[in-house]
Amino acid sequence: STADKRKLVKFVTGSGRLPPPGTEVLRVQVLFEEEGEATTAAALGTLPQAHTCDNLLEVPNYWAALCAKHGLSSAASEGLATNDPSMYTELQNDLERVLHDRFHTAVHECE
């Protein structure tokens, strides 16, 4: 919704207003960490983080965390779409759910 988009912009920039076209850049950075059980637990429980001075959004590597949770390395997950489509679909659905939940919490609870 438009209200959710405005909240996301406010979360990342600190302002609920869109900047004039061509004047601002929003950067998104996925945080890559060493894979492991402890990292998995931490990443799945970590919210996206914004640095409003730099218009930077840091997103934990939820994909790697979900792969590790299912006993896969990120590299092994690359062939899943072909080799095990049902597992790949399950991981994609889990990723969508995690992204939605974490962004919703971060964006709606930041005020």
Describe it for me?
- The chain is mainly alpha-helical and 111 residues long.
- It has helices at residues 2-13, 37-45, 62-69, 74-77, 80-83, 85-108; strands at 27-31, 49-51, 56-60.
- Strands 1-3-2 form a three-stranded mixed sheet, with helices on one face.
- The mean pLDDT is 82.
- It contains six helices and three strands, in the order αβαββαααα.
- It has one domain: 2-Layer Sandwich (Hect, E3 ligase catalytic fold).
- 55% of the residues lie in helices and 12% in strands.
- Helix 1 (2-13) crosses helix 6, helix 2 packs across helix 3 (62-69) and helix 3 (62-69) crosses helix 6 (85-108).
- Residues 1-62 form the HECT domain.
- Keywords: Ubl conjugation pathway.
- It comes from Haptolina brevifila.
- This is HECT domain-containing protein.
List the helices and strands and how they pair.
Layout: H1 2-13, E1 27-31, H2 37-45, E2 49-51, E3 56-60, H3 62-69, H4 74-77, H5 80-83, H6 85-108
Parallel strand pairs: 1-3
Antiparallel strand pairs: 2-3
Helix pairs in contact: 1-6, 2-3, 3-6
InterPro entries: HECT_dom, Hect_E3_ubiquitin_ligase
Keywords: Ubl conjugation pathway
Pfam families: HECT
